[in-house]
Design brief:
The chain is built from 8 helices and 3 strands; from the N terminus they run βββαααααααα. A hairpin with a 6-residue loop joins strand 1 and strand 2.
Length: 221
């Protein structure tokens, strides 16, 4: 790819230094003011523009109106989407016009979007609805960037998942409740028979459970 060179020139009808270069896509000469009449500052600006042109990051502030952008997006991009999706996009664009009222697309910046979110919350919209709406808006602005209508997509508010307090699954038992549980062991663990041997084994099992529970799980009084 040929290197793009930016040159400085003076025009009779302007006090500012002008930059000029050949557009590689059209082959036509382009002019842009440096907004300064100081040669050193003009050279610095020309160097910056030349660097951006060769890196592919050059962007000249777009003057497209919001109305024209909306028309283009709805007829060029959204037209291929599902009908329900198109309706949602239309609703989001209506939000923008009601709460931001941008004259030009570049007026829809971080501040405007943040204010719109605040107003949507005040109207009672749920967070998930607002988040989904911003998703459609961000997709539209990404398309605008791909069409060189804006230089960058503004940052969107981040939605943090609300932390919910974990419910306590239980509570420590009281000493009185623990003692009642100990007393219930003989009723829960039944003897296998009524013979003297069975009753002795049953008594030993009950005693071992009492020892285990008192030794490991007894609550403090």
């Amino acid at each position: 790819m040929a290197i793009i060179r930016v040159f400085l020139s003076k025009r009779k009808n302007s006090n500012f230094w002008q930059m000029r270069w050949i557009d590689p896509d059209t082959g036509r000469e382009k002019w842009q003011s440096t907004k300064t009449n100081i040669r050193r500052d003009a050279e610095r600006e020309a160097g910056r523009i030349e660097k951006e042109l060769n890196e592919g990051t050059y962007y000249r502030r777009s003057t497209i109106s919001w109305k024209d952008f909306r028309s283009r997006y709805e007829t060029e991009e959204a037209v291929a989407l599902a009908e329900r999706t198109k309706q949602k996009i239309g609703t989001v664009f209506n939000y923008v016009e009601t709460h931001c009222n941008p004259k030009r697309l570049v007026n829809l910046n971080e501040t405007a979007i943040s204010k719109m979110v605040k107003k949507l919350r005040a109207k009672g919209l749920e967070e998930v609805t607002i988040k989904n709406s911003l998703g459609h808006l961000k997709a539209a602005l990404n398309w605008a960037k791909s069409q060189k209508l804006i230089g960058q997509v503004p940052d969107f508010p981040k939605f943090r998942r609300a932390r919910t307090k974990k419910a306590m699954r239980g509570r420590p038992i009281t000493l009185e409740e623990f003692e009642r549980m100990i007393e219930a062991i003989p009723e829960v663990i039944k003897p296998l028979g009524q013979s003297e041997g069975s009753l002795e084994r049953h008594a030993g099992i009950v005693a071992s459970w009492e020892f285990y529970l008192w030794g490991w799980n007894a609550p403090k009084s």
